């Protein structure tokens, strides 16, 4: 559908989390690749002022008659930098006891003093902290003693989790993502935070074969189940893992896949999502 809108002249096309729109927060978290972690989406397209609404709907219906275009609505908006507009909604946020995600363009708030501050520009990659799955993983990292440890962030997106781990004391982090834009965003964010020398990023095919004491993977339940052998092989004996991107209704499938390799698996919920964390069996 994005292609149809673009071919019909849309200047930009965005996906909006319907839940956010209902809350009037209207935070646009860019979904990279094929992993928008939302139940209902709103498709938002920007056209030149004066575009004929009736003709546009007619053309869209011809392109895809399977969508009920009568639910489409139009409104006139002030001109602005649309690709970046959502960043105005992105504010400093605290996770756990001490971890602060602070947008690159804002000042750290006074309350963040003495905390662990990660300066972030997600760019077009997923991961600003506004999504429940990211928040669940940040809370988990915040509660660990990461000093001197090596961390694997599988599905790193903006790099937010790897960067948080590094700022919380990890010695090094490896970020893996199948979207090259995510690797660029992670690298750039590490440089911005002055920790570029401690983060390595890889596509899955190039990722080093080794074990880590700490592994975090915020992907999707189906991908986590498919990746169980890889993630189990990457976690050292007694090492810890956190998995997210899992809807509450999918938790049992992920638990069943990981139980043979991990013990003490615990499910923590936030909104419709859960994190599953546990320890690698010896
Ligand atoms: C939900 S985002 C998480 C981003 C960030 N780690 C966070 O917690 O906000 C999932 C990321 O995993 C990547 N991804 C999805 N499937 C993958 C796979 N099979 N291998 C590697 N990366 C994958 C996506 O490109 C995306 O950047």
Automatic annotation (TrEMBL):
Catalysed reaction, written as an equation: L-lysyl-[protein] + 3 S-adenosyl-L-methionine = N(6),N(6),N(6)-trimethyl-L-lysyl-[protein] + 3 S-adenosyl-L-homocysteine + 3 H(+)
Gene3D superfamilies: Vaccinia Virus protein VP39
GO cellular component labels: cytosol; ribosome
Keyword list, A-Z: Cytoplasm, Methyltransferase, Ribonucleoprotein, Ribosomal protein, S-adenosyl-L-methionine, Transferase
Predominant localisation class: cytoplasm
Subcellular location as annotated: Cytoplasm
InterPro entries assigned: Ribosomal_L11_MeTrfase_PrmA, Ribosomal_PrmA_MeTrfase, SAM-dependent_MTases_sf
GO molecular function: protein-lysine N-methyltransferase activity
GO biological process: methylation
Binding residues annotated for S-adenosyl-L-methionine, in chain numbering: 134, 155, 177, 218
Domain of life: Bacteria
Pfam families: PrmA
EC number from the UniProt entry: 2.1.1.-
NCBIfam families: prmA
Functional summary from the UniProt entry: Methylates ribosomal protein L11.
HAMAP family: Methyltr_PrmA
Family: Belongs to the methyltransferase superfamily. PrmA family.
Protein name: Ribosomal protein L11 methyltransferase
Organism (species): Arenimonas maotaiensis
